[in-house]
Amino acid sequence: YELVKLLLSYGAEVNCYFRVISNTVFPTALQYCLRDQAMLRLLLNNGYQAHKHFVSVSWLAHLAGSVVRILLDYVSHISICFNLKRILERTPHLIHFASAPGEPRSLQHLCRLVIRGRMDIRMLNDPEAMAAVPFPPRLINYLTYSEDDLNGRL
Predict the structure, then answer these.
(1) Which intervals hold domain SOCS box (predicted)?
(2) For the chain, which has fewer Cβ within 10 Å, the N-terminal or C-terminal residue?
């Protein structure tokens, strides 16, 4: 985690495609964190574009539920493609994700996304900068997804 944080602090691009080794349908960094929720959240908190439907490829079907659960925290409008909806419907304990696109997101969630969208990613990930923002600590924790920090690793 520390190495990834260091790379990100020096401007590493989380949405880049490195096609020399493998030609993926999603940014290369994600293939290293699909089984690691903390790493996935770290990339999402540092600007990964959560609206890409990379989990609809067949070889990721077994991970779709846990990855979609995390991605839902980072998008305002949910549009699940046909392939992903079919994968989610085949898994009984994930059936509620298949109906999620028709349900509106909470106002609280939408406000978080709007505020985050107006702030710089580097500022959001800098504890000192966030301490200087005139927001209450609970709001800062919500904006920075601190409540989802798994074991203090983010």
Answers:
(1) 103-145
(2) N
Q: Which residue has the tokens 């920075």?
A: 144
Q: Which amino acid is at 154?
A: L
Tokens 């000192």 appear where? Answer: 128
Phi and psi, residue 21, nearest 5°: -85, -50
Based on its alpha-carbon atoms, the radius of gyration of the chain, rounded to whole angstroms, reads 16
**In terms of C-beta density within 10 A (0-12 exposed, 13-18 middle, 19 or more buried), how is residue 73 classed?**
middle
Q: Is the pLDDT of residue 30 over 60?
A: yes
Q: Quick check: 152 pLDDT over 60?
A: no
Give phi and psi for 4, each to the nearest 5: -65, -45
Going 26 to 17 to 75 to 150, the CA torsion angle's sign is positive
**What is this structure's pTM?**
0.75
Rounded to whole angstroms, the Cα distance separating 105 from 77 reads: 7
